[in-house]
Amino acid sequence: MKVEIKNWHAVAQWRWDTGVSEANGMDDDEGDVCGICRVPYEGCCPACKIPGDDCPLIWGECTHVFHMHCLLKWIGTTASKQQCPMDRRTWGQSVPIFSSNTLSSFCSYC
Amino acid sequence: MASISARRLSKELMEIKNDGCPVGINLIKADDFSTWWFTIEVMGESLYQNEQFTLQFRFDPQYPISSPAVQFIVTEGKQAPVHPHVYSNGHICASILGNEWSPVLSVIAVCVTLQSMLASCKEKQRPIDNDRYVKHAPENPKKTRFHYDGECQCYRIIPIQDLTIRFL
């Protein structure tokens, strides 16, 4: 039998590498949402329309992950006392996957 | 465009409708994203057996970045529980509603925390400064700066679920 391919469609899926979801397997959906807005990491924060590089994640030194815009909105309030919403430790940004240039250009939001 | 609070609250409402409320807590009205009402009872042995209270949540468009205004309802024959952290006008002195609020907390987490605050009560009494506070209290309890270890003898109330464990 001879098969001739006339056309094909490539389909791809992406996800942020949060370093935890892979290990947790499929059954943990709680871990895949931003604790502040409860939208999946792969979705975007409520202020954005398009997920992806324009609405990135942010990692804390405490290893907690949020949509960057959600976290910055919280850290920008005096009520936050600059603390991580999860563990109330002083928020410190962990070294991101992005270069610092790229990240600061995202920050035009705040 | 839907506000931040509307999106987040519609998710919380869906969870409540799908999974139900914890035992002793019931949603009675949530027709919009500005005010919700719950009934709250303490299960098992406590000083509040056979008592049911109504809890009101008011949300501003910045919820959950800004905390909800939470109080017991004291109109239409309803009463606030007699408790050292609860004023007779329904205002509650609880740190998680004030300076310990975190946007990862939810409406149900607040209900459960208040339920356990009642459950652990040793003696039914009003805050020491109840009369003075109620006389001058603002309508919205969020405008009060409670001193969580001050005159009303209110101390930190820790949410029943440890935040880091729940969301890690």
TrEMBL record, chain A:
<keyword id="KW-0863">Zinc-finger</keyword>
<dbReference type="InterPro" id="IPR024991">
    <property type="entry name" value="RING-H2_APC11"/>
</dbReference>
<dbReference type="GO" id="GO:0051301">
    <property type="term" value="P:cell division"/>
</dbReference>
<dbReference type="GO" id="GO:0061630">
    <property type="term" value="F:ubiquitin protein ligase activity"/>
</dbReference>
<dbReference type="GO" id="GO:0097602">
    <property type="term" value="F:cullin family protein binding"/>
</dbReference>
<feature type="domain" description="RING-type">
    <location>
        <begin position="45"/>
        <end position="88"/>
    </location>
</feature>
<keyword id="KW-0479">Metal-binding</keyword>
<dbReference type="Pfam" id="PF12861">
    <property type="entry name" value="zf-ANAPC11"/>
</dbReference>
<keyword id="KW-0132">Cell division</keyword>
<protein>
    <recommendedName>
        <fullName>Anaphase-promoting complex subunit 11</fullName>
    </recommendedName>
</protein>
<dbReference type="GO" id="GO:0005680">
    <property type="term" value="C:anaphase-promoting complex"/>
</dbReference>
<dbReference type="InterPro" id="IPR001841">
    <property type="entry name" value="Znf_RING"/>
</dbReference>
<keyword id="KW-0862">Zinc</keyword>
<keyword id="KW-0498">Mitosis</keyword>
<dbReference type="InterPro" id="IPR051031">
    <property type="entry name" value="RING-box_E3_Ubiquitin_Ligase"/>
</dbReference>
<dbReference type="GO" id="GO:0008270">
    <property type="term" value="F:zinc ion binding"/>
</dbReference>
<keyword id="KW-0833">Ubl conjugation pathway</keyword>
<keyword id="KW-0131">Cell cycle</keyword>
<dbReference type="InterPro" id="IPR013083">
    <property type="entry name" value="Znf_RING/FYVE/PHD"/>
</dbReference>
<dbReference type="GO" id="GO:0031145">
    <property type="term" value="P:anaphase-promoting complex-dependent catabolic process"/>
</dbReference>
From TrEMBL, chain B:
<dbReference type="InterPro" id="IPR050113">
    <property type="entry name" value="Ub_conjugating_enzyme"/>
</dbReference>
<feature type="domain" description="UBC core">
    <location>
        <begin position="4"/>
        <end position="159"/>
    </location>
</feature>
<dbReference type="InterPro" id="IPR000608">
    <property type="entry name" value="UBC"/>
</dbReference>
<dbReference type="Pfam" id="PF00179">
    <property type="entry name" value="UQ_con"/>
</dbReference>
<dbReference type="InterPro" id="IPR016135">
    <property type="entry name" value="UBQ-conjugating_enzyme/RWD"/>
</dbReference>
<protein>
    <submittedName>
        <fullName>Ubiquitin-conjugating enzyme/RWD-like protein</fullName>
    </submittedName>
</protein>
<keyword id="KW-0833">Ubl conjugation pathway</keyword>
